[in-house]
Amino acid sequence: MLQAFPASLRAELSEVQDQLLHVSADLKPPLNELVTNQVHLSQPLIRASIALSAGCKNVNTVGESPEKRISLGIALELLHIALSIHKNLISTGIAGNGLEVDKTWVGTIILAGDYCFSRSAKFAAQTGIPEVVAIFSRALQEINEKHLRSIDENFYVDYDESIELCTAGCQAAMLIADLPTDVKMSTLQFSSDLLSWYSKRLNSSSNQSSLAFPEELDRRINELVPTQQQRWRDLAEWMVDKSGH
């Protein structure tokens, strides 16, 4: 899957994926199987891609290390994986309404999800910026509240937390890159609009030409931080190819 990404993102995404698989490998069966499966389902790591794009500084810095933004990408994907695993608790509870639920399976879900939450927090802390952890905490609170509102006694409407996670990732990445306030605002709005367009294109059954990449978004890429422009353009081109029929 990563081979489909241009080199501007592929190298760092490869490190993110490797670390996700290492996290899974640290567990014993059946926990590692549950986490590994979720790692594969999390492809193509869109959340990390946005963080890695927004986390570039506004000028090229000699010897700049990408480690902090890579740690952020790992933390973001682990948070997504943890939330996805814990969603199984909701579906298991509803499916087993009035019936005996496999307590061993429930325990496995809880342990695997909690483990991914803890590792996500660890990688977020590795950025060395306390506000990054705070951003994740606020995003998680908002996501959990929306999940709770999606639950009915006998029915659950799956809630897609992609927007919240990508927004949190973009905000945290720009802190790492130490971007000016006005640049942060324009980058955050662009990433939100890009993801919104991608989501609509993925979920549309109409002719894809009606949801071609907007010229206005293409123009706005040229107004972003110069060191980020190629990454955003590569990501946008990938989204067009990925969502085409």
Secondary structure blueprint with pairings:
Blueprint: H1 7-25, H2 31-41, H3 46-54, H4 67-95, H5 103-125, H6 130-150, H7 162-177, H8 181-203, H9 215-221, H10 226-243
Largest sheet descriptor: none
Count of DSSP H/I helices? 10
Task: Please state the structural category.
Answer: mainly alpha
H/E topology pattern: HHHHHHHHHH
Helix content: over 70%
Q: Which radius of gyration do the C-alpha atoms yield?
A: 19 Å
Poorly predicted spans? none
Assign an overall shape.
Answer: globular
Descriptive report:
There is one protein chain. The chain is mostly helical and 245 residues long. The chain is 72% helix and 0% strand. The protein has helices at residues 7-25, 31-41, 46-54, 67-95, 103-125, 130-150, 162-177, 181-203, 215-221, 226-243. Helix 4 packs antiparallel against helix 5 (103-125). The longest helix has 29 residues, at 67-95. The two termini are 17 Å apart.
